[in-house]
Amino acid sequence: MSIRRRTAIIGATVAALTASALTIVAAQGASAAEGCEVDYTVVNDWGSGFQANVSITADQPIDGWTVEWDFTGAVSGISAWNVGSHALDGTRFAATDAGWNGSISSGETREVFGLTADGAAGAITGATVNGVACGEGGGEQTTEPEEPTDPPTGTPVERHGQLHVCGQYMCDEHGDTVQLQGISSMWLHWQTQPYAQNREALQWMRDSWNLEVFRVAMGVEPEGAYLDDPGTWKAEVEKVIENAVATGVYVIVDYHAHEAQHDEAAAVGFFSDLAARYGHLPNVLWEPFNEPLQVSWSGEVKPYLESVTAAIRAEDPDNIVILGSPTWSQDVDVAAGDPVAGTNLMYTLHFYSCTHGDALRAKADTARNAGLALFVTEWGASHADGGLDGVVCLDEAQRWMDWMNANQISWTAWKLDVGNDTTNLLAPGAPVTGGWDAYLRGHAPFVVANLD
């Protein structure tokens, strides 16, 4: 179970500001002053460094903020996300809003940014907002355990519970091997409609298609995706996680990127935050790097995965992490020669049956023989471009399906959306809420027939 630690300081009553009014949330046992509240929560402390999240509760509407405070201990090397700018001068820290998160309505609580830093977590003091002092006080840390949520009866999560890696396989809490079968979303920011975020649709796929796992593919690098608008897309991922909890299915949180190693801090912040809040649930599996390009495994991909996996493990010690490899997650044999250390780690393998056949299965067999557990988090009965030409290669897709079944390898098929590509599962007119048996197209009939 994940434990969050909160560091807070006693605030004072503050007059309304030009842009906002603020007090600092009270330490345990004290009364908070009237006004707004800033909640500075230490969510991860590894001794030599820490991670904290900052939330604001507005009593009066806020339209743009600059938050400043002093750390009570020596800190350095601060990395912050969801901010327009940030700076550290000695112990004094300042951060401004990123534009999209600058407005906070009256009565609203909003998590506005997060940070990691080297040094002792300690507390904060001398806080100001938009230049107005908000009071000082001594910090205290408290623990707030998150309560587990029981899955609905008769659902995949209720049957299997907490998953773990057992040799080359995935096993459930009873020690039995498990092969999960499911669907992947489209890149969230490119969906034609929010199919991935609809709870009724997820429940329909569970009951009508026997879906056990859903992969939420959050685009990271393209214009309009996570790096451009992190607050929006993380919130959409959270919807999918919460829907999975409510419907009792497993969910893969896919950081759908090709060059994530170039912005490691963003990935660390994303997974640290979600692991702190959802890592206690058995539903969640983490996929921190969808498809690295043709780059060095040991020099680029592995160090990134080690860093992000460590951030996840600081909050979530046991849920499965699924690791990508170079060449669009095909070089699993290369990764097997120098694997990431740790427990409950699997490696993703991606194939498209018009492009990939025996040669890629041989690479996968090499990885499995070396001891790696594989999870095919993305596949299609098409060419590797997702089927732009509309061609379906079912004979080779069946050979892949036979291979996955023989080795009890779990899979999620690409992709839940409407469009002309072979791998778009749905035809125009498909409702957001499910009921899609009359709307199947491309490789969808083959995919649904194998969801057994």
What does this structure look like?
The longest helix is centred in the last third of the chain and has 19 residues, at 297-315. Residues 1-34 and 135-148 have low confidence and may be disordered. The protein is of the alpha/beta class. The chain is built from 10 helices and 24 strands. It has helices at 156-160, 199-209, 230-247, 264-278, 297-315, 326-329, 332-336, 358-369, 394-406, 444-449, and strands at residues 3-8, 23-24, 37-45, 49-57, 62-63, 66-71, 75-81, 83-89, 92-97, 103-104, 109-119, 124-129, 132-133, 140-145, 164-166, 169-171, 181-185, 213-219, 250-256, 284-287, 321-323, 345-352, 374-380, 411-416. Strands 1, 2, 3, 4, 7, 11 and 14 form a 7-stranded mixed β-sheet that branches. The protein has a 5-stranded antiparallel β-sheet with strand order 8-9-6-12-13, with no helix packed on it.
Concise overview:
The protein has 452 residues and is α/β, with parallel strands linked by helices. 24% of the residues lie in helices and 30% in strands.
Secondary-structure map with pairings?
Elements: E1 3-8, E2 23-24, E3 37-45, E4 49-57, E5 62-63, E6 66-71, E7 75-81, E8 83-89, E9 92-97, E10 103-104, E11 109-119, E12 124-129, E13 132-133, E14 140-145, H1 156-160, E15 164-166, E16 169-171, E17 181-185, H2 199-209, E18 213-219, H3 230-247, E19 250-256, H4 264-278, E20 284-287, H5 297-315, E21 321-323, H6 326-329, H7 332-336, E22 345-352, H8 358-369, E23 374-380, H9 394-406, E24 411-416, H10 444-449
